[in-house]
């Protein structure tokens, strides 16, 4: 059995999220999704509209996802060790260098984990922040 790990904020679910999760699921038999903790989301992207436990519940209900969980507040590699994925799939727009992540995994004895990047979704509604702007009337 091949376990795949994906991660993200997943605040307002849009077609880009669905495409990412479908792509991630295609790499294996089980997809575990790590939903960013509120504090992590604020630090890296934006303040989420929905709290982390709600976002994880929503993501867990999506068809490609076998299990969703809220990420930790410390070392992200603790979560990787907990999940024990065979493959980590990065979103096309996530600010991780694939090579740097591979290097860090190797340094922590997790070098057996394959790292791949999802392709951009052509029908993406252009990210959560743009959706929020559109809802607010900003186009």
Structural description of this entry:
The longest helix is centred in the N-terminal third of the chain and has 11 residues, at 15-25. The mean pLDDT is 90. Strands 3-2-1-4-5 form a five-stranded parallel beta sheet, with helices on both faces. By secondary structure, the chain is α/β, with parallel strands linked by helices. It is built from six helices and five strands; from the N terminus they run βαβααβαβαβα. 39% of the residues lie in helices and 17% in strands. It is globular, with a radius of gyration of 15 Å.
Tell me the distance between the termini. Answer: 45 Å
What is the gyration radius calculated from CA atoms? Answer: 15 Å
Q: Give the number of helices.
A: 6
Q: Strand order of the main beta sheet, please?
A: 3-2-1-4-5
Beta content comes to 15-25%
What's the main sheet like?
5 strands, parallel
As a percent range, the share of helical residues equals: 25-40%
Shape verdict: globular
Mean pLDDT: 90
Low-confidence runs (pLDDT<50, min 5 residues)? Answer: none
Order of helices and strands: EHEHHEHEHEH
Content-based structural category: alpha/beta
Number of strand segments:
5
């Amino acid at each position: 059995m091949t376990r795949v790990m994906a991660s993200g904020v997943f605040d307002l679910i849009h077609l880009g999220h669905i495409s990412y999760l479908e792509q991630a699921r295609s790499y294996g038999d089980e997809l575990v999704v790590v939903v960013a903790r509120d504090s992590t989301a604020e630090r890296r992207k934006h303040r989420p509209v929905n709290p982390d436990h709600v976002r994880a519940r929503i993501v867990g209900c999506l068809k490609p996802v076998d299990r969703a969980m809220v990420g930790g507040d410390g070392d992200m590699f603790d979560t990787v060790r907990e999940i024990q994925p065979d493959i980590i799939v990065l979103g096309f727009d996530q600010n991780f260098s694939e090579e740097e992540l591979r290097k860090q995994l190797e340094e922590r004895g997790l070098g057996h984990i394959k790292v791949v990047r999802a392709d951009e979704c052509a029908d993406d509604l252009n990210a959560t922040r743009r959706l929020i702007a559109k809802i607010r009337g900003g186009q």
